[in-house]
Amino acid sequence: MTTATDAGVAGTPDALRDELLELLVEATEGKFRADEIDPGANFFDYGYVDSLSGVVFLAGIEERFGVEMDDMEVVERLNTLDLLAAHVAEHRR
Question: Which of 10, 51, 58, 91 could crosslink 2 through cysteines, CB 3.0-4.6 Å?
Answer without folding.
Answer: 10
